[in-house]
Amino acid sequence: MLKLGYYNNGVKALKFIDSIRHLIFYSTSTSIKSNPYFGNYLIEHLGFSKQLARSTSTKFNQIQCRRIKKVSSSKFVSNADSVLAYLRQNGLNDTHIRIVVSSLPNILVSRIKQTLKPKVDYFMNFGFSKSDFAQVVSINPYVLLNGQFIRAIEALKDVMGCDNHVNIIRIMKKSNWNTTSGLSNNLIPNVAVLRDYGISIELIRDRLLVHPHPFLRRTVIFKDLLVRVEKDLGIPRYSSRFLLGLHLLASFSQNNIESKIKMFESFGWMRSDVMDLIRANPFCLALSEARIKKSLEFLMNDLVYEPAYIASHNVMLGYSLEKRIVPRNKVLLALKEKGLIKMHHSLYTTLLLSEPRFLERYVLPFEEVHEVYAKHTGRSPLQPLTEGGVGDKDGL
Predict the structure, then answer these.
(1) CA–CA separation, 297 vs 279, rounded Å?
(2) Quick one: which H or E segment has residue 80?
(3) Helix (H) or strand (E) holding 124
(4) Residue 211 DSSP symbol
(5) CA 278 to CA 16: how far, in whole Å?
(6) What is the C-alpha to C-alpha distance for residues 293 and 260, in angstroms, rounded to an integer?
(7) In whole angstroms, what is the distance from residue 319 CA to residue 67 CA?
(8) Which residue, 229, 240, 221, is CA-closest to 275?
């Protein structure tokens, strides 16, 4: 029996640390009340609701209680106005600023030159546009007062290459606090382990750009995951599928994966068949159980494909039944019934074609199947395709 470990503990640990950090800074206290002038400022200058202004004001007072030097109302207003002007100058609109202030109310009393400007200058000098910067801040407001984000970028530069700013920015634009923490603390040692495994830096960079999260686990857990990719999934480290296996184990629990394997077995698959499928394409088990069941019902019951055939033509599991497989199968059957194409044309071959190519080869030349295509796709074959095509493979 396949034995798989549940290794989301790294992410859970990060979330736990983050929650503790919030608890320490923002724990509720009956002895601390909301600050009237602070709350009024949020309502009048940033459009906060009264309820949000009150809760944010309480956070602010809790932080201020730990300061030796208090901030007067007049100095607060002057400093807050300057901070808001500075943030707007660097691309943040009021929506972004509300997100930042509700998370970090003390930013309104921060010093621009000493605290904010060095971090903002780092972003801009690195190559972030103002819109990039605004997106980053709205996802992870703590970058404005914490150096973790900068350390994460430096780690990415070490792995991705110092001249790969575009892709580094792409990764960081989607990074919340947990992602940033994992990048800054775990990325470099984990990549070093992969390099010791013989994994090329090019493969690592490609996967990091698409799915960075498996690389963020604590290194002790990460090493164990790599062992299990070989031992439990049977994917050797020299295989191009090795990092896909890592992603599968890092993303799903033992029970989740085992339940999906049993779904295949309920359709008559031997466990060896399922293992062949996993080794060929680990992401087939990233599909939901409902999706697997629906696909197998059609491929095995309606089309009478054997497990071995599906395992060796596993790309079919990644295509949408409604948008791609069923419409193309109906068109192909109609063409064969009318004698417009030879019987040896396989569905699998047509599934590999892009939508424009499929239309050009199997639909447009034969007016007899235009109605069949329209019925099962909901669109005329003469209708211009939207960008990206129709019925493309789902993201696996």
Answers:
(1) 22
(2) helix 73-89
(3) helix 117-126
(4) -
(5) 32
(6) 9
(7) 58
(8) 229
Q: Pick from 359, 369, 376: which is nearest to 339 by CA?
A: 369
Contacts of 219 (CB under 8 A, 6+ apart): 186, 189, 190, 193
Record the tokens describing residue 379, joined without a space.
Answer: 């669109």
Alpha-carbon distance 176 to 96, whole Å?
Answer: 15
On the question of pLDDT at 171 being above 80, the answer is yes
Average pLDDT (307-321) is 94
Q: Give per-residue pLDDT as tens, 335-385.
A: 999 999 887 889 999 999 999 999 999 999 999 999 999 999 998 888 766
In DSSP notation, 136-193 reads: HHHH-GGGGT-THHHHHHHHHHHHH-TT-HHHHHHHHTT--HHHHHHHHHHHHHHHHH
Distance separating alpha carbons of residues 63 and 108, to the nearest angstrom: 12
Q: What is the DSSP string of 331-374?
A: HHHHHHHTTSS-TT--HHHHHTS-HHHHIIIIITT-GGGHHHHH
DSSP character at residue 392: P
Separation CA 385–CA 388 (nearest Å): 8
Helical (H) or strand (E) element with 62: helix 50-64
The type of residue at 320 is S
Report residue 92: phi and psi, to 5°: -85, 135
Supply the DSSP symbol for 394: P
First to last CA, the chain: 25
Q: Are the C-beta atoms of 221 and 10 separated by less than 8 Å?
A: yes
